[in-house]
Amino acid sequence: MRSALRRDREPKVDQFVIETLRYGTPLVYVTMAGVLASRSGIWHLGLEGLMIVGCCASVIGVVETQSIVVGLGLAIVLCVLGSVLLWFVIEKLRANPIIAGLGLTGLGLGGTDLAVQSIYGSQASVNAPFGLPRLGPAFGPYGVLSVLVVLMPIIVFALWLLLRRTRFGLRLAASGEHPFAARSVGAKPPRLRLIALCLGGVLCALGGTELALGSLQIFAYGMTAGRGFMGFSAVIFGAAHPIGSAAAALFFAVVGALGIRAQLIFGDQVPHDLLLTLPYIATVAGVWLSGRLRGGARAAATFGELRDY
Amino acid sequence: MNGESALACRDVTVHYGDVAALVGVSVAFRPGMIHAVVGQNGAGKTTFARVAAGLVKPVAGTLSIGGCEVPTGNVNLARAAGVELVHQSFALPPSFTVAEAMEFGATGGGAIYSRRRLEARWGRHLASLGVKVRLRDRIRDLAVELQQGVEIARALVTEAKVLILDEPTAVLSPAGIDTLFARLRGLKAAGVTIVLILHKIREVLAIADTVTVLRGGRLVEGPIATADTNASQLAHSIVGSEEEKKLTGADEAALVGASEAVASAAAPSARAASAILELRDVNTRPDPEGPTLGDVSLTVGRGEIVGIAGVEGNGQRTLVRTLSDLTELQSGRIVIAGIDVTHTPLRDRRAAGLRVIPFERNSEGLSLSSALWENWSARKLLFDRLLAPISPSRLRKECAEALDAWDVRYATTTQPAGSLSGGNAQKLILSREVDPAANLIIAAQPTRGLDVGATAFVWRSLREARARGCGILFISSDLDELFDISDRLVVMLSGRIVGEFRPPYRLGDVGAAMTGALA
Amino acid sequence: MKTRLIAVLRALAFVLLALVLCGVIFEFAGRAASTAGNPYSAILMFQSIAEGAILNRGAWQDSLRWALPLFITASGVAISFRCGYFNVGAQGQFYVGAIAATFVVDGMRGAPAALVIPLTFVAGILGGAVWALWPGVLRVKSGTDEVITTLMGNFIAGLLLVYVTAGILKDPSGTGQVMASRPVAAAYRISTSSGLSPTIIVIAVIVGVAMWLLVNRTAFGVLSSLAGRNPIMVVWQGARLSRLGLAGFVLSGGLAGLAGTVEVLGPNGRLVSGFLPTHGFTAILIALVASLSIAGTAIVSLFFGGLAAAGLYLPVLVGLPAAAIDIINAAIALFITARTWPGLERLFKHRAAAAGGG
Questions:
Q1: Helix C294-313 crosses helix C323-336 at what angle (to 10 degrees)?
Q2: What CATH number has the domain spanning B275-353+437-515?
Q3: Verdict on whether the full-model pTM lies above 0.80
Q4: B242 CA to chain A: closest CA distance, Å?
Q5: Which residue, A186, B182, B258, B393, has fewest beta-carbon neighbours within 10 Å?
Q6: Which CATH code, of 3.40.50.300, 3.90.25.10, 3.40.47.10, 3.30.429.10, is assigned to B7-82+160-239?
Q7: Domain limits at C217?
Q8: End-to-end Cα distance, chain A
Q9: Measured in whole angstroms, how far is the alpha carbon of residue B110 from the centre of its chain?
Q10: Cβ contacts (< 8 Å) between C232 and chain B: which residues?
């Protein structure tokens, strides 16, 4: 009797973990990109745009060349280009990072739309013939997860090492917190920020690829649905600490997965769209809570710049 | 005497935009000695230090360290040649731990570290310098003097041959200055060449072997042996004959920090009829910005300047914020002009005559990107209802009149406040705050960073306000200034008032109170 | 005056830079479009946009139809930004205002227009104001960053819109495809689908004049501008930052809600799920390009209204992707807050020093 119950319960737990990982892995990648940017002193609101560029480029790459490597490579190249553009606008043109980030997001959303409309002629979504390599049946029910899911915790750990246990990480943090101090030991904050943004670009490409090709194998306009901003909030919630922010991102993913699960359980009793709002509400709650815990608001000043005196 | 100099520069010229910060400065410092570079604010001392450290690239001029020419404007090369700079406003990220602060300036060693290895490596270094601090403490939690110790330790992480310290004594108590000097003498004995940026003659004569004077970006004198000069000669070089004519002897001594004993204050004010400010047993709630006030009782009479002395970070900021209703009171009362304002907001306190010249000119006193007239009108506009109609052209005219009366140099009232020089910006703030209706003026470090002329102007304006019957609370970390201007002096330590003095002030007594030597 | 001229020139320069970037993107996309059999060049794209915005017959009217509601929302955004708060939730506030308005106008069917229309407006304004109030309170009371909360508010409002148009307000006679409310009764409409009517124009003018007076002729205008650039300084002067800030939030939300009401009672004539998805972002852009001045917002609204009109023209009449307009908007956003060009810094410092030395 007991074993029968156990057999009955396990698949649901497995399913839930799988859904959380599927929802959460792209989110964690994007969050790590946000952590890098935040440490270097930039509030990166362009994550959403970079992520969707990653989604679109990887799908188009796979569709056109049947090669996952080309798809991933294209995503990385474009995301890094976008990051360099953002860096140029913020660092060299001294634009406001928040608006520039929103502009980059707009470019990403519009650009992917334009690309799809131009190449495939309609506004419908683009289907990819296959997705990322999966773990395979050797892993049981978890075999459906893609390799990027397994890579995710490795990357989180690597970032923790980089940011918290190397001199590069210290200098990067100084660039964000006290650029003058960084300069006084010979570090160059603009260059460090460029490195941080480019690394972040690669991570956004990975996140976007996972989102589009990890389980779905499709690109649809606006498919990121705010995940880039959720990642940004996870960075705030986790105080720009790699592991804390990853945990925050997974928390948002759990809420998202709960929402999906609730739809399956409750069917039509609970409105589908209202359940979809759960992750966004969780994000607001997370940011509010972190504000209460840490005495809130902004890193960079109004319309303004990183203090460097 | 021949021999290569430890640090030398020739014809260094630095331009910040259109302003010449340094013009044709050539100087050579011999190794193994303590060299002082003095001058008033704006003379170019900090710029000079930064050129030597490679932080600022001059438009002309060469730099040589240890006899070898080093390209200018490159911090890494300067550090490699053995030059390290300890900055005036601390240059360590506040959230770093002490160990991290040591590490991020280090060169060599492995790429990845573990916390334990870090603490071992830097623990030894700090102990060898006599800096008693826990490696896990965060920079922002350290007391000011300890922060400076950590800054110096950070600069000595590499084997520095030339150590430059930019105004290290500005934030220290007299006892702290003694400790610093002892440490510097120890370093000199170990063969380090030390260049000290100072602006008090007393300190120069106490510690330095040679002295070099900068004025207006130019080298006026030096390096000459301190034994070959005296206080009044130095004062003359620092201030310049033009400005000297405008200053009283006491003021000049205060500006250059020449006096040993203390000046007696100007004619004692007539017994104040009533107090304009009374704080009774004020205790504040915990506040992230500073220590809480503990049982603070203080009065300021009409026509009286009360000075607040104390090492920065001992509650002076909390005091000013409490009076400005930015910090919550736990108990106690505040009375301004006979009205209990303990629970009234800042706006009403200002209506009762309270005026504040804040600590940070640029972030608390002005909105740098807003126009002059907007900055100037802020106080008046807040008295009205929010939706009250205004006439910007009339406000601009009134602003222009006020700025002219205060001798502010500007082009138009619509220019941004950030385009004013430090002295003019401070005058703008004064023109806003020191109006005829002012009763009680809180002046928080009002002359910080100002040159001779502007400093004298501020003193003169506040004395005029006093003559009109204002009460003034003057907070400064410059004891010479306080001795010169205060009718009464109060010392703060850890949020409490630990001493009250009347003229004649003795440096020893006040200094002891500042560090808690007095019970 | 010189500073204002410089600001205008700077805005123009960066708009031009944005258009250059767009030109590059259009060339690439246009070449890639050959796979779909419909290649285009950047020149063709820009030309078509100009046609849709101003050159064609009737283009001016179309541009104006879009410009008016955009102006209403943008003036609210400008005020909120002036107060120093990045209320980027105009889209959500626009939606909630439209939803509230639709509830009233739908629920009061049959009542006299003289009663329904004003109440609908009130509901719309309140709806938008409420949707800006909660992020505002969170910011002012708890320091919760308003960029995130208002952005999330956009997504939540979008989902709310889907929910109500698929459920409560759903038009029973419609097909299953488009989720929309019942059309607003003719008696309550304030304009035809052309979007231009005396009512709407008057509303826009009143909003414009009122906001201009508020910003330029009241203490609130100066104080909020100071607060926007340096809140710390204003606090030290004794201002209650929370009141200034909340006022900015509520006002901007209310204006966005007003615009939403105008769209529902006017050219749209009903509440459609996912309608005007870029209205809020465009309004923010207008406020930025206009350097947060009200008069400038009016002028810039015409420009972006023209772009929006072109956006409809492109796919329908010329077969070019409408996303081109989104890209232009985004590129402008990217560059518009830039303050300098590398190398020009020395020139600017020179000017500043000359103006104020002493």
A1: 150
A2: 3.40.50.300
A3: yes
A4: 31
A5: B393
A6: 3.40.50.300
A7: 59-317
A8: 72
A9: 39
A10: 363-364
